[in-house]
């Protein structure tokens, strides 16, 4: 343990530390049932929290020597930075401090002759393993370009022939390390940074983009798996419920649950809300099927009643009070169960529709009969006029002829008999019409003769 850091506090009651067979520590929350590699903040000491909140991170170079890397400025130093010391709670600095030079493109790590004891470094394990300073760069002492490098770390960076292979290897590492879709990038780096496949993708930006794409794919896969699982569970749940005919469209969950809680399919999910949702979906289907069945039965009964009403000899003027007794006493309605689905309102509706049809047919028949009678009367009238005209041509009707003189001539004629009792003009009125025409025809010559006589006779003075 380090002399700088205070001892770790006891873990919170909800979190417990365990180790894998390989000795790697992981943490389990017995309340939320969450398992994770990262040490929970509740179990961290004040020094660990301080280290986590500052940008300097400690790493070990080849040969076991420690160096520090700033994740914000991308500077590195062999000497422990003051911020790191403060986070550890260190008092005093190194005995022979050497000024540190930030890393630049043209140089390397700054040189220092200072080193801390291994006991002091062991407490600062790589809990936060953000990407360290690239190991392919050399570390030299001072600014002397001729100085030999302090060390040239051997690189274990994997080489791949294409970007696709590198991305595939990086994704394989994420899967092997158990990276979840809800992890952030910093949390993921702590888990996979020490693995050589972490640098399968050299560019940090592309590496993070590959991680984000992996998380998106994981989310889609999780959603698809959840959808497939729910689809299968819904089908199994429906099959289970169908085996219980006592569960009907009006059964409630609190009534049905004791009936099915012993079923294996019921225990295949521990989510009570999910069970109830699947049950409610099944009940909705039953209600829909019941409603469709009722509508079908009602339609069949209405069709039967519509076919039955014309056989009851109802008249267009029959009242509902009389028709109701006639319809209710019909043996067909009493013996056939399908008509039990009809209410009095349904029967009244069918009766009214039937009455409308009868009234419409009655009115049409009346109109047709009236038109037919009108045509008959006009035909009879025209025939009688023809009879009178023939008598006129024969000289039997003239301006001075009387009706009594004509009646004996036509009283047995069918054309005269057809006019009897007919609406409109009577036979006698038609006869006088012919006489008037005859008088008008004589009045013209008579007036001409009178005019000539008046002109020729001398006037008296």
UniProtKB/TrEMBL annotation:
Q: Where is this region: Disordered?
A: 1-21, 80-163
Which residues are in coiled coils?
none
List where Basic and acidic residues composition bias occurs.
Answer: 115-134
Checking CDD domains in the record gives: WW (cd00201)
Residues in domain WW?
9-42, 55-83
Cellular compartment(s): Nucleus
Question: What Pfam families does the annotation carry?
Answer: FF, WW
| Skewed-composition ranges (Polar residues) | 137-146
FF domain mapped to chain residues: 163-217, 229-285, 376-437
Please give one Gene Ontology molecular function term for this protein: RNA binding
Q: Give me the Gene Ontology terms describing cellular component.
A: U1 snRNP; U2-type prespliceosome
Print the keywords alphabetically: mRNA processing, mRNA splicing, Nucleus, Repeat
What are its GO biological-process terms?
mRNA cis splicing, via spliceosome
Domain of life, source organism:
Eukaryota
Compositional bias of kind Pro residues: 1-10
> Which InterPro entries does the UniProt entry name for this protein?
FF_domain, FF_domain_sf, Prp40-like, WW_dom, WW_dom_sf
Name the record gives this protein:
Pre-mRNA-processing protein prp40
The uppermost taxa in this organism's lineage are: Eukaryota, Fungi, Dikarya, Ascomycota, Pezizomycotina
């Amino acid at each position: 343990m380090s002399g700088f850091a205070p001892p770790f506090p006891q873990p919170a009651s909800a979190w417990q530390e365990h180790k894998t067979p390989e000795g790697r520590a992981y943490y389990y929350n017995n309340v939320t049932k969450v398992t994770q590699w990262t040490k929970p903040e509740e179990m961290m000491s004040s020094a660990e929290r301080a280290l986590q909140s500052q940008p300097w991170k400690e790493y070990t170079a080849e040969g076991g020597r420690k160096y520090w890397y700033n994740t914000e400025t991308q500077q590195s130093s062999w000497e422990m930075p003051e911020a790191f010391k403060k986070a550890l709670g260190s008092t005093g600095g190194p005995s022979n401090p050497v000024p540190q030079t930030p890393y630049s493109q043209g140089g390397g790590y700054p040189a220092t002759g200072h080193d801390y004891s291994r006991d002091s470094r062991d407490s600062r394990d790589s809990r936060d393993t953000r990407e360290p300073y690239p190991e392919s760069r050399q570390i030299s002492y001072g600014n002397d370009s001729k100085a030999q490098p302090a060390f040239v770390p051997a690189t274990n960076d994997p080489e791949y022939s294409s970007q696709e292979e590198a991305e595939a290897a990086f994704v394989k590492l994420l899967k092997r390390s158990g990276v979840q879709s809800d992890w952030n990038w910093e949390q993921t780096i702590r888990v996979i940074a020490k693995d050589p496949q972490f640098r399968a993708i050299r560019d940090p930006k592309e590496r993070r983009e590959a991680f984000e794409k992996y998380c998106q794919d994981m989310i889609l896969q999780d959603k698809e798996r959840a959808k497939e699982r729910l689809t299968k569970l819904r089908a199994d749940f429906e099959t289970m419920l169908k085996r219980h005919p006592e569960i009907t469209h009006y059964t409630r969950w609190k009534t049905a649950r004791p009936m099915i809680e012993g079923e294996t399919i019921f225990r295949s999910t521990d989510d009570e809300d999910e069970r109830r949702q699947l049950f409610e979906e099944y009940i909705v289907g039953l209600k829909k099927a019941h409603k469709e069945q009722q509508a079908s039965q009602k339609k069949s009964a209405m069709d039967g009643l519509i076919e039955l009403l014309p056989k009851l000899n109802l008249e267009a003027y029959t009242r509902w009070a009389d028709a109701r007794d006639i319809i209710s006493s019909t043996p067909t309605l009493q013996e056939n169960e399908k008509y039990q689905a009809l209410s009095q309102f349904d029967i009244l509706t069918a009766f009214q529709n039937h009455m409308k049809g009868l009234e419409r047919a009655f009115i049409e028949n009346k109109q047709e009969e009236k038109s037919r009678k009108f045509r008959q009367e006009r035909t009879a009238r025209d025939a009688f006029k023809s009879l009178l005209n023939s008598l006129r041509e024969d000289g039997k009707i003239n301006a001075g002829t009387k009706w009594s003189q004509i009646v004996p001539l036509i009283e047995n004629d069918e054309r005269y008999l057809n006019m009897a009792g007919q609406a409109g003009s009577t036979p006698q009125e038609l006869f006088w019409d012919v006489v008037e025409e005859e008088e008008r025809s004589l009045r013209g010559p008579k007036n001409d003769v009178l005019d000539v006589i008046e002109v020729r006779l001398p006037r008296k003075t």
